[in-house]
Amino acid sequence: MISTLHIKNIGIIKELTINLNNGLNVLTGETGAGKTLIIDSLLILSGGRFSKEMIRKGETNSYIEACIYLPQNPNSIDGNIIISREVNTNGRNLCKINGRMVTVNELKKFMRDIIEIHGQNDNQILLDNKYHLNYLDGFIGEGLKDKNQYSQKYTQYIEIEKKLRENYGDNKERERKLDLLHYQYEEIKQAKLKIGEDEELENKRKIIMNSEKIAQNLKETDNVLNNIAIDALSTGIRALDKIANIDEKYEKTTSNLKSIYYELQEIAREISSSCEDTYFDEEERKEIEERLDIIHSLKRKYGNNIQEILEYKEKIKQEINYIENLEEYNNKLKKEQKELEEEMDKLAKNMHKIRKEKALELSDKINQELNELEMKNAKINIHVNECSEYFKTGKDIVTFYIKTNLGEDEKQLSQIASGGEISRIMLGIKKVLADTDKIPVLIFDEIDTGISGKAANSVAQKLYHIARKHQILCISHLPNIAAMADVNYFISKKIINERTNTNIKQLNEQETLQEIARISSGEINEISLNYAKELRKKKTKKIA
């Protein structure tokens, strides 16, 4: 149950704290006082859409927080869960569950199992066909004994499907994968790559591209060495030879110079040889360019260098071998899958039969409730259609259809335009499913729209009955509903500093009688108070 709700800066609500109770909580009050804003705040807190226009004028953010008592929930601390959502004018959203940041989608998913909001435009769950099967199965309860066994087998079935996908269990997929791997393997193999080959080719390419420059400078160097440097050294050596015997130091210098002379001769011969070997071969350059293009193409596909490409080639080889030897294992999995399908088909057929029978019973019970809610011409018809696809819950698609008037064709609930009709249909469904429905908090916004008299009494009684198993928050203008409340709240508005502010007050018994009297006749007098007392007595008798 929601124990405390705190709202700040939503519309005309400046700041409001509501302490809620178990059972039926009814909110009444002045028109335009902010009753629906409270429901809107709970919708926002449940992950609903938020418009920046809802932020109170002059403020930069809105904040909503609720303390929810759910002792069985793993997220609770001492049984309590704190949910909050802050929305800023700049569009920033801040959602938290027990202080932990969550996304809006995570918040919505979490709150989906805690709160259901039913108003003029907020019956998404009832209108969403995927929830209809849950309603039917909730009504059947333990009578759907094959459901757990089917669910276990479905889990095994999905696991096998996953393994087959990972193991290329589909023949076409496996063949496509093998074709691709074989192509990649052959492409790398045909290239006959060698480690370091790309560096060597890049070097050769560089030399060829600069061959003219190299030849010119080698020739110039060869000319200088052979025609100038060596002749000059030779002349110098002959001159020093003439004085070498005069002093030991001249002899040593002559010897050093001769060593340089011989080394320079060797260098000159190497350069002369290089001059002869330097040439520009256009065909060789073209071959090098083509080879480098092949290597660069393989690098783009399979690795940053030749080493990685060759490693990838080995990996491909191993994967080809793995896939080609999977057939036996996949055949075993497919056999298991086939056996599971047969077992699931049998269980699904049993569930389908039970669902078809119980759908008629549930339809009848809901139609009885609708009749009491003064929707005498409305007829619910629950369709249970078996399909070929396997779902977690079986092979059935359950859809609620309704015919609201005699002579009309039945339509899906989602095609009903009247929010009041949808709210009463939901009330009828909730009345039938009150003992099995797992949602702890139900919120009804002006469910009494367009009803009075007997229908109003019926709505009030059904709300009271459902509230024995669920916490209900209900906005109402009907004295019949207010009189059946376990706790009544009065919503009012005041002008403070030329700004409208919403206030809320929990009413005591005397104040409750006065509020029932007010909404029954528009004023509080002896007659309306006596009427209020009579309505409250009906509740007392119901409790007794």
Any overview of this molecule?
With about 550 residues, the chain is an alpha/beta fold. About 55% of the residues lie in helices and about 20% in strands. It has 17 helices and 15 strands. It has a 6-stranded antiparallel beta sheet. Helix 12 (about 325-370) packs across helix 13 (about 420-430). It is elongated and about 150 Å long. The mean pLDDT is about 85.
Task: Briefly say what this structure is.
This protein has helices at 35-45, 104-111, 124-127, 132-140, 147-166, 171-191, 197-209, 211-241, 248-277, 282-302, 306-324, 327-372, 419-432, 453-466, 479-483, 509-521, 526-543, and strands at 2-10, 13-19, 24-29, 61-69, 80-88, 93-97, 100-102, 115-118, 379-391, 394-403, 411-412, 441-445, 471-475, 487-496, 499-506.
What tags apply to this protein structure?
544 residues, alpha/beta, 6-stranded antiparallel β-sheet, 6-stranded mixed β-sheet, 15 strands
Question: Largest sheet, described in full?
Answer: 6 strands, antiparallel
Low-confidence stretches: none
- Classify the secondary structure makeup into a structural class: alpha/beta
Helix-residue proportion = 40-55%
Q: What is the molecular shape?
A: elongated
Number of helices: 17
Mean pLDDT, nearest integer? 85
Going across the biggest sheet, name each strand in turn.
2-1-4-5-6-7
Tell me the β content: 15-25%
> What oligomeric assembly is this protein in?
single chain
C-alpha termini separation: 25 Å
DSSP, total strands: 15
How many whole angstroms does the radius of gyration measure? 44 Å
